[in-house]
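INFO  loader      accepted 1 record
INFO  loader      residues=157
INFO  predictor   begin
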Amino acid sequence: MLISVSALLTSAEKLSAQTGADWTWMEDNYSHVLNDLTPANLASVKASYRWGNNRVGIEYAFWIGNDFGDAPYPLRSYLSAYVAMADSASIYNQMLDMHLRNHQEDAQSLEEKIKVKRWSFTEMSCPAVKSQFEKLQGISFAVPKFSDVIVVDACSS
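INFO  predictor   done
INFO  writer      dumping tokens
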């Protein structure tokens, strides 16, 4: 109970210490740092998922794709899975804490200090990488029937 109260007071104190300029700075820089530390789209990625919310929870991402390792092309590539997850505190909170301690430090140097856990697996070291990816490839979706036109626009602003 005491720990919960302490955490609430610390969070409330942090929010009250954050100025409008701090909110703007975080809004301008957080997405860039998140994209660098947990990119949503990498070369040779076949499937990826990223979750990040600048107010709640720990950001994380995973990717499955072909990894050519050190082998020269055209040797057969193998599937690899990569996972990245903020360590103990969210990327947003780590970044905000460091920014509040030193307003002069830029986002790039803060990014280098943010703690992120990373794991990687290959289909050789973890056969589930291949078997689960094969199951993913077998998923199909029925297109719903509409009386109107369907427009899919991946480019949203």
